[in-house]
Amino acid sequence: MKTRHLLSLTAVAAALLLTGCGTTGPLPTFGKAITPEWITADFDGTPGDEYIATSNLQDVVFNTRGEVIGWYVKGYAGTPYIKRRGDGTWDFSALKDQKGIVNMVAGRKALAVQAEGLNPAQPAQTSAPTGLTTDVAANRQDAVFRYTQGGATVTKTVTLHPRSFKIDLKTEITGGPERVNILFPGLGKADNPRVQGYSVGGTQPATAQGTATLTVENIQYAALQENPSQVAHALIIRPQTGTAGSAATPASAAPAAGQAISATLTGGAQGLISASVPASSNLEIYGGKNELIHLYQSGYTTLPGLFKPNFFGDISLYIVKLMETLYKAIGNWGLVLVVLTVLLRAVMWPLMQAQGRTTARMQVMQPKIKEIQEKYKERKDMDSQRAMQAEMAQLYRDYNFNPAGCFSTFIPFPVLIALWSTIRNFEFDSGFLWLPDLAVPDPFYILAVIYLIVNVGQLYVMTRKNPDMFRQQAMIYIIFLYFALTFPAGVTIYIILSTLIGIVQQVIINKQVERETATIGVKVEKAPSRQVARANAAKTIDAPKK
């Protein structure tokens, strides 16, 4: 396989890997950002309506008891799994039938209340929820669910936060037991998630091994987690601020009698957290991606033993903290991305300079390399091949070209990968210019067109001495155009700005290298020496006269 073909395939494979194609379920649908709202409709086909909170990040389906019967986390932010038909009805077929979309509760019910006289499997007297409201500016969707069973009345006040995976659950039980269990099944596609809980004042998490069951008293948090990745999920619960086991409660503080929250953990494919709470409780729930940036923005990376970043994760945390610092000074996330891109390119300028000079020298050498290759094209014997290698080595020496210099381009890769992952997963709270939301693709496709133009421009600058290579590799960017249409707008802005800076740098380097190599291989006529000049003069004087 020729090198140019291998590079092309590698580029496509890298793009597929970075975007997670083939592993995140259905590919995203191009369109505008989803405006968070409550949808009231028949979701499960049984009599009565369900209540669906939809947003860019997830679709959560509640029944009339306030139990979650469908919990769909989106692999691509902004993907509209729910469609509205022309007659005004809703089409939920993608959520229910499409392979690759994961229902985290997997046919079970989350937020179900269980105790003496309260049985999720038995009928109850229900009514339509109240307070179904959405406040985009305040980043919240609210609902109040109420039902009566066994003489007890259960009231659940649910608050979802559309720009994160967090849900606040306030539960009030009147006329019933003093303590109840709230069930949190999750991670429907995981065969064996990590199931653990951490006690207030504990030294390490307690983990349920296999399908075993384990009870953790006075929890700071309890969690079900898949191995961290872009497609992994986590379900985490912790007491809200001001209640036992919360972040605001000192580790040494003893909870009031009957107020401690414990969790019974069950491992295996039927992973379950059963939280034992007082009749009046307030819990915070995280149900979404088990991924560093989302957990960081939700305030979970400080919880002991919950998430340990790898090398790239540590770099991502430095980047996101730098972004937050810049935002405090600038106040606009779009401008933060502009400044961040310029800063990082400035830091990496020396490394990119070395790689750019290597690229420029290779381009200048291309005609001579072709001459040597053509010269030995039909000569396959060992002596000829050695001679060709010798001529190539001499050419490299003449042009001061070191093939190992190409590897300098890989040095910034850890930072670039971490930066890409950080921006991709970061939840911005504003748009920029014509963009309504930096966390979802550009709905007007303007960035995708600019992305295509600047990348083709960069390719031209790097292959200007080899038109054939330009034509062959330019077709790759037609494929890349699809990814530009699906990248979050913030990611595309970073790529465009970084590429433009790279083009300017490469043009400058090209001119420098062309000046430096302009005289290589050019024969210069030397002036005759003085002795030769005298001899010629003597010959002229002694020449016989006619």
Which secondary structure elements does this structure contain, and how are they paired or packed?
Layout: H1 3-19, E1 37-41, E2 50-54, E3 58-62, E4 68-73, E5 83-84, E6 90-91, H2 93-97, E7 112-114, E8 125-126, E9 130-135, E10 140-149, E11 152-160, E12 166-174, E13 179-185, E14 194-199, E15 206-207, E16 213-216, E17 219-225, E18 233-239, E19 262-266, E20 272-278, E21 280-289, H3 292-297, H4 311-330, H5 333-347, H6 349-375, H7 382-398, H8 413-425, H9 446-463, H10 467-474, H11 476-486, H12 489-516, H13 530-542
Antiparallel strand pairs: 1-2, 2-3, 3-4, 5-6, 7-13, 8-10, 9-10, 10-11, 11-12, 12-21, 13-20, 14-15, 14-17, 16-19, 17-18, 18-21, 19-20
Helix pairs in contact: 1-11, 4-5, 4-8, 5-12, 6-7, 6-12, 9-10, 9-11, 9-12
Family: Belongs to the OXA1/ALB3/YidC family.
Keywords: Cell membrane, Chaperone, Membrane, Protein transport, Signal, Transmembrane, Transmembrane helix, Transport
Domain Membrane insertase YidC/Oxa/ALB C-terminal: 333-511
Shape: elongated
Relative strand content: 15-25%
Class by SSE composition? alpha+beta
Instruction: Give the termini separation.
Output: 75 Å
- The percent range for helix content is 25-40%
Mean of pLDDT? 78
What's the number of extended β-strand segments? 21
Can you summarize the main beta sheet?
Answer: 10 strands, antiparallel
Organism: Deinococcus rufus
Family: Belongs to the OXA1/ALB3/YidC family.
Membrane topology: Multi-pass membrane protein
Keywords: Cell membrane, Chaperone, Membrane, Protein transport, Signal, Transmembrane, Transmembrane helix, Transport
